[in-house]
Amino acid sequence: MEERPTRGHDRALCSWLLLGIALLTLFPGNVGAQTEAPTEPFELEHHLKVGPLDSGAFVVTDVDYFRSNTLVVKMADGTVVIVSSPYENLGTATLMEWIDRALSPVRVVAINTHFHLDGTGGNDVFHQEGVEIWASKLTRDLQITEGPNVLAESLQYFGTPELKDRVLRSHVVPAEHAFPLEDGKVFDFSGESVRVFFPGPAHSPDNVVVYFPGRKLLFGGCMIKPETLGYLRDANIAEWATSARRLRRFDADVVVPGHGKWGGAELIERTIEVAEAAAKSPDE
């Protein structure tokens, strides 16, 4: 006689199925950008906070280092695009572990948004992990000539020896692939495009933005400053507002700044206002 499964067996089977569904939701794997993804923020090790945008797009905030934002987007062809970077190696290694585990990329492309550590600080780990690193030629040149000075200067801003040590254990590694700054760069991932655009000098002479037209998603980086212009070591205050106005050409529902909370196109307008006020003020 055939042995029939018991109700307890049925309950156990259902539990395993529910667990499997939950794991697939949290870690969608190599199933394309339209896979069900987490909708609530969650935290990784070393104070990295992950904020989901749409399915397959995430803002990863490095809380320990000025709440610096990195954009992570899984494209429809399985490529993961990383825009900007955590500040140093440990945070970047944590980010890469999560990307490998949760997104199962077939290829990873990193775009350096400017030569400061919050645009290039993860390149050492990216290089070790076989990530395809892109930057403008000016960003690469400035990182080589100014990167060590920026790293040394940044140490004064960290309140604990542990945070300083993490930066000191990182290395300045330039991008392997470069494009002319004024030309920008357009990537094509099986029909889904990503555009790198130089709007003009603002936070730094090399700051670029990265636009995902299919998602109406713009990473504005450190030139998006809706409250105060902040760090001005390499800034061009006189040109900042003009450069920010050039971002109006993008049809963006979501704008991600280099630091702090993301929002809509109003962040561009507020940045223009702040930059105009700063240009008129002798105190800036």
Automatic annotation (TrEMBL):
A Pfam family recorded for this sequence: Lactamase_B
Record field: catalytic activity: a beta-lactam + H2O = a substituted beta-amino acid
Keywords: Antibiotic resistance, Hydrolase, Metal-binding, Periplasm, Signal, Zinc
Gene Ontology CC annotation, any one: periplasmic space
Any GO molecular function: zinc ion binding
Matches recorded under Gene3D superfamilies: Ribonuclease Z/Hydroxyacylglutathione hydrolase-like (3.60.15.10)
Ranges for domain Metallo-beta-lactamase: 67-259
Biological processes, Gene Ontology terms: antibiotic catabolic process; response to antibiotic
Main localization category: periplasm
Record has Flavoprotein as a keyword: no
E.C. designation(s): 3.5.2.6
Zinc is among the record's keywords: yes
Enzyme class: hydrolase
Names of required cofactors: Zn(2+)
Compartments (UniProt record): Periplasm
UniProt subunit comment: Monomer.
NCBIfam families reported for this sequence: bla_class_B_core
Family according to the record: Belongs to the metallo-beta-lactamase superfamily. Class-B beta-lactamase family.
Protein name: beta-lactamase
